[in-house]
Write a structure and sequence with these properties.
408 residues; Rossmann fold; six-stranded parallel sheet; 40% helix; alpha/beta
């Protein structure tokens, strides 16, 4: 045990790219503020934040770039097992021995080659499951936009059979090979001391897929409600914020907006945008597409909405967007799938509907719109109070620190 409490924080990217990166970077700030020395380990990238430890970062892997078959083969080998990452993490922990290592997303870039190295050096290892990769080769339990559990019970050949990753035989084949190697060498199962599941749903799903329940801790994500100010003015629209992807249930939402005659704003970008624009036009419904917004603009948009709508049709984990909507004092309408029902108290902080059911979603939108503004504000205030109490950064740090100490 080192005298200094030193946390080795590991993630592919060292900049705010998505939800996992936000959790990773917020955790670094939280633990630094509590007096820990935090040493990051990531991949080199032009957008990375500056770090005194960046000389130990692994070289960037750019997919889809130029290169012949030899380059592609080398890249594929790196994706599966990066010797460079293993070498660099050994050098890093030689210079700064950690009390504990906490990994977030490592696959495809850093790779789990580092986990065996940490295990060999006796470093306790914790990993947050931001998705279902350690159970499902395709990591989202999605195949062609639909929930799929065909790989359950080690039937992982299905990822290639159904071309689950990018609908490509080549990419799905590489992912199958990666999974076979990782499982046969126990690169996750034999090295991780504890998994953190941000939702009870993910905890239960991982147990269903063969992970030992005693090795999984449920620790929800956190948000600092004090950093958000509820708006004083309410607009006449509902908003979705996030990626415009098929599994997000946005076609269902556009149909529900048409049925309930509600104004809808879709904030974000993604591959589904052209199809959604066409659908809105065909149904004659007013949908505003804002594209990607910076944080202040997005917070203003959500803060002035009647509600945030999360119509997902896949196993969402623990969407931070729900916590942000509550912090901004707004109710949330979500679907009964994945970890969403854990974050929406039906009738108290918003409403829950069945996924892929435009009629039920339309009824929920109309019912919410029919309430007086004070009732919606009351739901939002209940949500804000809940977030401030249960999802406070201090709670996250306390729960995570307790987990680290139990491994010490």
């Amino acid at each position: 045990m080192t005298h200094v409490r030193r946390l080795l924080a590991i993630n592919n990217y060292f900049y705010r790219r998505g939800g996992a990166e936000s959790v990773f970077l917020d955790q670094i700030e939280l633990f630094t503020a509590a007096g820990w020395e935090v040493v990051p380990f990531a991949m080199r990238h032009p957008a990375n934040l500056p770090s005194a430890w960046s000389e130990y970062f692994v070289s960037e892997i750019e997919y889809g770039g130029p290169g012949g078959p030899v380059t592609k083969a080398k890249q594929a080998a790196k994706v599966i097992y990066s010797l460079e990452a293993r070498r660099k993490i050994l050098a890093l922990i030689g210079r700064a021995p950690p009390t504990v290592a906490h990994a977030h997303n490592v696959y495809h870039h850093i790779s789990p080659s580092i986990f065996g190295a940490l295990k060999a050096e006796g470093v306790p290892l914790v990993m947050t499951a931001h998705d279902l990769k350690i159970a499902c080769p395709a990591y989202k339990m999605l195949s062609r936009g639909r929930v799929c559990e065909r790989c359950h019970g080690s039937r992982i050949h299905n990822v290639l059979l159904h071309r689950c990753v990018k609908e490509s035989a080549l990419v799905s084949g590489l992912v199958l090979l990666e999974t076979l190697v990782h499982r046969s060498f126990g690169l996750y199962r034999d090295t991780i001391d504890r998994l953190i599941a941000p939702s009870r749903f993910y905890r239960d799903k991982l147990v269903e897929w063969g992970w030992d329940a005693s090795r999984i801790a449920y620790i929800p994500n956190s948000i600092d409600a004090k950093a958000y100010s509820p708006a004083t003015h309410e607009g006449d629209y509902v908003v979705y914020a996030g990626r415009l992807a098929p599994e997000k249930g946005l076609a269902t939402l556009v149909r529900a907006a048409a049925l309930s005659r509600q104004q809808l704003v879709l904030a974000g970008s993604g591959p589904e945008e052209p199809a959604l624009r066409k659908l809105a036009q065909d149904l004659g419904v007013e949908v505003a597409f804002t594209g990607h917004l910076d944080k202040p603009a997005l917070q203003r948009l959500i803060g002035e909405a009647r509600a945030l709508v999360l119509p997902s049709e896949w196993y969402e984990n623990a969407p931070i967007s729900v916590l942000e909507a509550y912090a901004l004092g707004r109710p949330v309408i979500g679907t009964r799938i994945g970890g969403i029902p854990e974050l929406v108290a039906d009738g108290e902080t918003g409403a829950l509907v069945e996924p892929a059911n435009p009629v039920m979603l339309a009824e929920a939108l109309a019912a919410l719109a029919a309430l007086p503004p004070s009732a919606r504000a009351g739901m939002g205030a209940t949500g804000r109070d809940w977030v401030a109490r249960e999802f406070a950064p201090d709670r996250y740090r306390e729960r995570t620190t307790a987990l680290y100490e139990a491994l010490g």
